[in-house]
Amino acid sequence: MAAAINSILLKIKPKIKIKICNPLSDCARSSSRRSASPSILQLFFSTTTLTYADADSDCSNETNATADANPNFIHPSADVHPNAITGHGVSIGPYCTIGSSVKLGNGCRLYPGSHVFGNTEIGDHCLLMPGAVVGDHLPGRTVLGRSNVIGHHAVIGVKCQDLKYKPGDECFLLIGDNNEIREHTSIHRSSKSSDKTVIGDNNLIMGSCHIAHDCKIGNNNIFANSTLLAGHVVVEDYTHTAGAIVVHQFCHIGSFSFVGGGSVVSQDVPKYTMVAGERAELRGLNLEGLRRHEFTATEVGINRTFPKYLLLM
Description:
This is ACYL-[ACYL-CARRIER-PROTEIN]--UDP-N-ACETYLGLUCOSAMINE O-ACYLTRANSFERASE. Keywords: Acyltransferase, Lipid A biosynthesis, Lipid biosynthesis, Lipid metabolism, Transferase. A twelve-stranded mixed β-sheet has the order 3-6-9-12-15-18-21-24-27-30-32-33. A ten-stranded parallel β-sheet has the order 4-7-10-13-16-19-22-25-28-31, with no helix packed on it. A nine-stranded parallel β-sheet has the order 5-8-11-14-17-20-23-26-29, with no helix packed on it. The radius of gyration is 25 Å and the shape is elongated. The protein has helices at about 1-10, 25-35, 40-45, 285-290, 295-305, 305-310; strands spanning about 20, 50-55, 75, 80, 85, 90, 95-100, 105, 110, 115, 120, 125-130, 135, 140-145, 150, 155-160, 170-175, 180, 185-190, 195-200, 205, 210, 215, 220-225, 230, 235, 240, 245, 250-255, 260, 265, 275, 280-285. The protein is an alpha/beta fold. It contains six helices and 33 strands. The model is unreliable at about 10-70 (pLDDT under 50).
C-alpha cells in the first residue's frame, strides 16, 4: 500500500527546474532585485560563484558581456563609498570594500573579499581575486593600467618597509598593462615623494614574490615564486628569475638575463648572461633565453666574447 501511494505522489509532484547562471547575468540581478533585503542565508550562499535563478529566467547573456550592455553589479554586502567612481560593466562581489577616492575602469571584476583603498586608479578590465588589497590611505597615488590580474591575497600599493619614509610624505606606485601578479605577492610604494615604484607591461610575477620600494621593473619579465627584490632594484626587459632568489638593494638586472634558483644577487647582472650561486656568479650566456627570443646565431656569436671580458675584470 505504501509503495502505491509513493508512486502516485511521484507522478503528481511538480518538476522543479533549476538553472545556474553567472552572478553578472541579468537573471542574477533580477533575482537580487526581488529580494531587496537579503537574509543572512542569502548573503552566505551568494558568496559562491554560482547563483540559482528561477527556471523561467533568461541566462543567455551570462558571461563576457560588453561593458556598454552590462550595467554594474554591486553585491548588497559590498561597502562602496558613494564618492567612488566606477566605469561601465563593473562587478563588485560580496564583502568588498571600495574607498572614497577610488576609480575603477570599465569591466573591472572584484571577487569576494577584495579591497581597494586610498587614492587608487584601476584601469579597464582588471581582475582582483579574493582577498586582494590594492592601495592604502597614504598621501600619493597607486595606479594600475588595463587588464591586470591581482591574485589571491596579494597586497599592492601599500606603505614601504623603509625607515627613511616619513609619515605624510607622498609615495607612488605605477603599474602598466597586462601584468599577472599572483597570490600573496607584495608590491610597495616609493619611500619618498621624489621617486616612484614602477612596473611595466606584460610581466608575470608568480606567487609570494616581493617588490620593494622604488624598484623599476621593465616589460615582459618572468619572476618565479619567492623572487625577492630589495629597494631601488632595476630590472630591465625579458629577464627570467628562477624560484627563491634574493636581489640586494640598488642592484641592476640586465635585459635577457637569467638568475638561477636559490641565488643571492649582490652585484649587477649584465645583459644576456646567466648567473647562479649562493653568491651569484657569472655562468655564461643565457643561451636558452636568447634562443627563445629568436636571437640569430650571429648575434649570439658576437655576445659570446662579452662574458669572457667580464671575467677578466
